[in-house]
Amino acid sequence: EEITVYVGHNTKRTGENTNLQLVSTQYHAESDGLAKVVATLKVGRNDITIPKISSTDVESGGALYVQYTGNRADDDYAVRVSGGVQVPRTFTR
Fold first, then answer.
1. How far apart are CA 42 and CA 17, in angstroms?
2. What are the φ and ψ backbone dihedral angles of 47, each rounded to 5 degrees?
3. d(CA 65, CA 50)
4. How far is it, in rounded angstroms, from Cα 23 to Cα 38?
5. pLDDT for 17-59, tens place per residue?
6. Which string of DSSP letters, residue by residue, matches the chain?
7. Is residue 7 within 8 Å of residue 21, measured between CB atoms?
């Protein structure tokens, strides 16, 4: 699935690196496939393809998290996600 993540910052300009990582998780995951860092975000538009992180044939999907890797109290980020679904789910027939 493809999503777009928009990142804003209080002092950085479009295209600059951030201290943010996008982490994808898998519902009903194997022990070694619960979560994976799928991108390090930049200020501005980030087009991201969410990879399959589990090799078993189970329900696809999981929550997305933004992980802060910095240590500056004055960092002020805004993040918006476009695409995906609000609550990941699989449809059966």
1. 5
2. -90, 120
3. 12
4. 6
5. 999 999 998 876 666 668 889 999 999 999 999 887 766 666 6
6. -EEEEEEEESSPPTT-EEEEEEEEE-TT--TT-SEEEEEEEESEEEEEEPPP---SSS-----EEEEE----TT--EEEEEESS-SS------
7. no
Give residue 85's identity as a one-letter amino acid code: V
What pTM was computed for the model?
Answer: 0.81
d(CA 27, CA 35): 10
Q: Which residue has the tokens 């993040």?
A: 79
How confident is the prediction for the chain on average, in pLDDT? Answer: 85
**CA angle, 49 then 15 then 36, to 5°:** 35
User: In 10 A of CB 70, how many CB atoms?
Assistant: 10
